[in-house]
Amino acid sequence: MDLQHEVEQFLYRQSELLDTKQWQAWIALFADDGVYWMPADPAHTHWDGVPSIFAEDKNLMNVRMKRVLHPDAWSQRPLWGTNHVVSNIIIESYDSGEIVVRSRFHMMELRRDDVRHFAGAYRHLLKKTADGYRIKLQRVDMTNAQAAYDYVLQVWV
Amino acid sequence: MLQERVPDLSRRLSEFVEPDRVRREVYTDPAIFELEMQRIHERVWIYCGHESQVPKTGDYYAVQIGRQPMVMVRGADGKVNVLYNRCPHRGNMMVGDRHGSSGEFFRCSYHAWTFHHDGRLRSIPMMESGYAGTRYGKDNPDCSMKHAARVENYRGFVFASLSPEGPSLVDFLGKAIVAFDDMCDRAPQGEVEIVPNCFRVIQKSNWKIFLENQLDALHPSVTHQSTGRAAHEVEKDIEKKTGHAPLSYHMLSAFATVTIDKWDNFQTLNYPHGHCILTGYMGLRPKDPDTLAYEKTLVDAYGQKRMEEILGVNIHHVLIYPGLSVQSPLQQLRAVRPLGVDRTLTEIWHFRLKGAPEAIYRRSLAYYNLVNSPATLVNADDLENFWKCHQGLSSEGGDWVSFARHFGRDLQKGEVVETAANCGTSEAPMRNQMKAWARYMAAQ
Question: Distance between CA atoms of A57 and A137, rounded to whole angstroms?
Fold first, then answer.
């Protein structure tokens, strides 16, 4: 199977896990030292030490997962779901088992009766392991990250 | 039926607020909202921003005061001015972006009128031939950008009032001025600087619902139970593995570990003009190497005794009515910009303590990201409550909002209303805010 196809399948599977709310399996796609990062400012080059919309290691991902699964997560009570489309997948570099992949996403979210749209670019740093790819860093540059948020984001985009 | 629901404000305003309850229209009536903007937000001191947001001449930040689009700009003399964001010619907004640099002067994008950064007219294209013999020209103040009636800067925090009358900023803030002293004193250099850029989140609810929640000590263990439990579980896991979990986990797990009955141990102090302080120390002084290194920088700057005073200040939140909530020990604030009767923008900023070690900045940054970012682990549930409150208040299922918890047990000490011992969950801050609201609204 060629690399492009493998990477595409990986990204599709990741977004599918979000849309089907399989949080544990989604978190498991990250390496033990993996980080999910949505910068507050597109000019930022490193997730550490700057304001970020998300800057989560696996421990914080677990807090977020456990929170939304808690029966008293009031904001999660209403009908809520997302639909991701991932496309424009380009392998930027491939070097000794580490792959940098750029892609574009569009996420539609339904919450109660309200639809919101979020779109932007992913940049995954993947490493190849015996169990398949693991994410060392996922950078999410959301085009509407700079706009005022009508309500907030509850789960990863 | 419709007629009955149009309020006659002049006659009924005093009937909206009672000492322990408030009518629901106070939150939902668009006519009352308009009057609030006129009589409260467009009169009192409103926080515009921090001077470090506009470090260089010509740097500007757009800011909304009540219904007025304003612009905070650094002048050539170093002073920070606050002007109406409007060209006196045809009303075009002078800046269309939220922030940026206007260069050496403002230049209108419509007909190229230019203005100094204090608002004075600088030039009009072909002014002599175009305006000779008319009422317009350099000597007519109507040809300059209008400035806020009053602007004051306290330790770098810039406020404006659109009314020429009223107390000075320092008198207005009163004891609540500790919000800025506490924040700045914690810096070895006595100053803070902005961490660009702010988070902006819109709440689909009336602005007062947010302010009332800020010092509501009963809600955290109810509203934020899910986050408290989740953080506590992960905190325990980390401690098992490494022996020590970051302080940010402790701040989140407190929502669960401080049980509902314990919140009565907190205290609120309620001041004139609606300002309030919630006391409660947030465990910000652990004996770890980072904290000890920070304490040393403070001792070097101020001496041992003063360092103890500075770090001993017992504050959780300071609410500056009607538009600012300051968490000084963590160097962050939320500015409230009402957009409409049922829509409120919050601008959430973080500051860096000048001269403090990087680790201390990162500690409060962790809180800023986890609690105050648009992917907040905490406020998501608050905003859900705010929306539900606003929807409920729009119904005819009841006329009153109750603020009766521990009513009658408050201790009046001069101008200050203190909650009594073990009454930390008192709704005294809401009563105090509504008292100020009623007084402002009654003033013609």
Answer: 9
What residues of B are in the A interface, CB distance below 8 Å? 195-197, 199-202, 204, 223, 225-227, 229-231, 233-234, 237-238, 249, 252, 345, 350, 358, 361-362, 365, 368-370, 373-377, 379-381, 383-385
> Could you give all domains of chain B from N- to C-terminal order, each with its CATH number?
46-154 (2.102.10.10), 174-217+266-442 (3.90.380.10)
Sole residue written with tokens 């007629």: B3
User: Position B379: which residue type?
Assistant: N
**pLDDT at site B27:** 97
| A152 falls within a domain | no
Residues of B whose CB is below 8 A from A154: 375, 380
Give, for B30, the enclosing helix (H) or strand (E). helix B30-36
CB atoms under 10 Å from CB of A36, counted, come to 25
Question: Does residue A57 belong to any structural domain of this protein?
Answer: yes
Contact list, B358 vs chain A (CB under 8 Å): 49
Whether residue A74 is contained in a domain is answered as yes
pLDDT, tens only, B27-42: 999 999 999 999 999 9
Q: Report chain A residues touching chain B, CB-CB < 8 A.
A: 38, 40-41, 49-55, 59-60, 62-68, 70-78, 147-154
Assign B387 a pLDDT band (cuts: 50, 70, 90): very high
Q: Which residues of A touch B381 (CB under 8 A)?
A: 73-75
How many Cβ pairs closer than 8 A exist between chain A and B? 109
Asked if the structure places residue A155 within a domain, the reply is: no
A53: pLDDT strictly greater than 60: yes
pLDDT at B1: 39
If one counts the domains in chain A, the total is 1
- Report the complex ipTM: 0.95
The reported pTM is: 0.95
Range of the domain at A12: 3-146
Domain with A107 in it: what CATH number? Answer: 3.10.450.50
Predicted confidence (pLDDT) per residue in B104-161, tens digit:
999 999 999 999 999 999 999 999 999 999 999 888 999 999 999 999 999 999 999 9
Distance of CA B126 to the CA centre of its chain: 44
Q: How far is CA B229 from the centre of its chain?
A: 29
Residue contact A49–B362, C-beta within 8 A: yes
Query: Can you say whether the dihedral through the CA atoms of B199, B203, B208, B210 is positive or negative?
Result: negative
